[in-house]
Amino acid sequence: MSLISRPAVEISQGNLTLYLTFVTPDDLFNGNFYTVDALEPRTQEGYQRILDENRANRLSRHLIEAIDEGYAHLPTTIFLATDRSLDYDEETKTLSFDTDEVGPFSVVDGQHRIEGLRKAITKKPYMRDFRLPVTIGSNLDNTHQMYHFYVVNTTQVPVDPSMRQQITKRFTEMAGVEDLPYMPYWLNREIAKGSDAKALRMVEFLNEHDDSPLQGRVQMANDPKSRNKIKQSSIVSVFKSQVFVASHPLAVQETDPERAAKIMLNYFRAIDEMFVDGRDRSKTVVYKSNGIFFFLSISKWVFNSIYSSTRNFTIQSITQVIQDALNELDDEFRSIAIAEWWMSGHGASSLNRASTGVYIDAFQQALAASQKSDDIVL
């Protein structure tokens, strides 16, 4: 017999009775306290997803690193359920139950937090009294438990990537962050790299500058949705993977963010003149995800050519380097030089990331060929 009594709040929501309280590792990992009813499609049983060990390990690492700084926390409640009734004393606000009688509780939501905590206490045994917030549902049979699992996991919305980028940038730029007693390792890593902040500053500049072809073309965090804009999270991710890397000369050569942004502005103005050529920017693939990926991917070779020669980043100089490469393209790729090909409903619309990569490789080879031909002296 394992009797547990805890201060709790009883909450009634329609026909549902919930109890808000806490459990500790000593509760969770003592005997048959909980079970995870994993989905088995063949037998049509269960409803839980398979445990993601990587996710549990990340939570465990957070707890292990943060506990000694007093910053270990899992603030959101896990959701446990039983098909039995629970004893609640309204006068003392106390929830009591015998786990041998009502257990094991089914984990409706929170299996990764539980597993992360279990892993953490193997290295930090004194965490056995860690209080994990829990919501317990009573008188819920398996069908009702599966229903609540479905509702919880299909209606809660994760933080939008654009919001995460904005918050990471703010942490990177804020004074006093270094005084925090603990910073999660994954956030600390992002702040140290600074790529979110660099890429986001670049995107904000291009989205706001009066002379930028991208002005107003980026759907920033918390902006209303628009079919004709590229999401901030998408374009920032491409800048991070294609520009703010050690292989890109702009990231290596330019230490002044304002100068780097102005160079990229001229680059997109050259792109706009060549591949949009006065057409409706809202209807061109140039400013959609695949177009941005293509032009930022080839920018490292375009910029490398300029850095190794004139170091002149005027629109005319950038245009000349790109045109030289286009002149050397094989016939099967020459369509990319035609602005109409980049309009919605034409050739570029059929590209996916893999086929875009084929055109990127072709451009690289053509640019290399154009530079070799320039070296020939007759």
For this entry, give a set of tags.
alpha/beta; 12% strand; three-stranded antiparallel β-sheet; six-stranded mixed β-sheet; 378 residues
Please explain how this structure is put together.
Helix 8 (195-208) crosses helix 9, helix 8 (195-208) packs across helix 11 and helix 9 (232-242) packs parallel to helix 12. This protein has helices at residues 25-28, 53-66, 99-102, 111-123, 142-155, 161-173, 185-193, 195-208, 232-242, 249-253, 257-275, 289-307, 315-328, 353-374, and strands at residues 3-7, 9-13, 16-23, 34-35, 78-81, 87-89, 94-98, 105-109, 132-137, 218-219, 230-231. By secondary structure, it is of the alpha/beta class. The chain has 14 helices and 11 strands.
Which ranges are low-confidence, i.e. pLDDT below 50, for 5 or more consecutive residues? none
- Strand % is 5-15%
Total strands: 11
Query: Mean of residue pLDDT?
Result: 89
Enumerate how many helices there are, as a single number: 14
- Residue share in helices? 40-55%
Give the ordered list of helices and strands: EEEHEHEEEHEHEHHHHEEHHHHHH
- What does the main sheet amount to? 6 strands, mixed
For the biggest β-sheet, the strand order reads 2-3-9-5-8-4
Give Rg in angstroms. Answer: 28 Å
Given the C-alpha coordinates, what overall shape results? Answer: elongated
The SS-based structural class is alpha/beta
Query: What gap, in angstroms, lies between the N and C termini?
Result: 97 Å
Write the layout of secondary structure elements.
Elements: E1 3-7, E2 9-13, E3 16-23, H1 25-28, E4 34-35, H2 53-66, E5 78-81, E6 87-89, E7 94-98, H3 99-102, E8 105-109, H4 111-123, E9 132-137, H5 142-155, H6 161-173, H7 185-193, H8 195-208, E10 218-219, E11 230-231, H9 232-242, H10 249-253, H11 257-275, H12 289-307, H13 315-328, H14 353-374
Parallel strand pairs: 4-8, 5-9, 10-11
Antiparallel strand pairs: 1-7, 2-3, 3-9, 5-8, 6-7
Helix pairs in contact: 2-4, 6-7, 6-8, 6-9, 8-9, 8-11, 9-12, 11-13, 12-13, 12-14, 13-14
